[in-house]
Amino acid sequence: MWRAMDLTPREYQEYVKKKQEKSPLWKNTALAFVIGGLICVVGQLISNGFSALGLNTEDAGTATSVSMVFLSAVFTALGLYHKLARYAGAGTLVPITGFANSVVSPAIDFKAEGIITGTAVKMFTIAGPVIVFGTAASVVYGVILWLTQKL
Fold it and tell me: Is the distance from CB of 72 to CB of 108 less than 8 angstroms?
């Protein structure tokens, strides 16, 4: 009887490589590029719309970011973002929409466990480390900036 435990890590990697289906690299790359680009085009159109409504560039950028996060959360909740990601692959990892999806998706998956122990806890499983390390990086950057200005 074959057992994975009897294989060395190298033998196991070779076994997995033989069983693995070949990925259509060029097709996947093209789809990721096109879909990721289309997500960015949608963001630019939203930004242009806010600018046309009279918002300055900074405010239009903020409103666009909020809109893209909202749309990503809605598409995730409706199950559409997952379907798009299965088709487009890495193209859906455009930072702001991909992050919103990664926060909302586990929250939805665990809503049956309750608001606090399910949705809130799972939502911050992904967002928590990003917030912590983002804040820490901001502090380090701020200290470096302050030191360079003092010197």
Answer: no
Q: Cα separation of 111 and 96, whole Å?
A: 23
Summarised one tens digit per residue, pLDDT across range 17-72 is 888 888 888 999 999 999 999 999 999 999 999 999 999 999 999 999 999 999 99
Could you give the CA distance from residue 127 to residue 108 in angstroms, rounded to a whole number? 14
Does the global pTM surpass 0.85?
no
CB 106 within 8 A of CB 123: yes
DSSP 114: -
Closest listed residue to residue 69, CA positions, set 107, 95, 50: 95
DSSP E strand boundaries for the chain: none
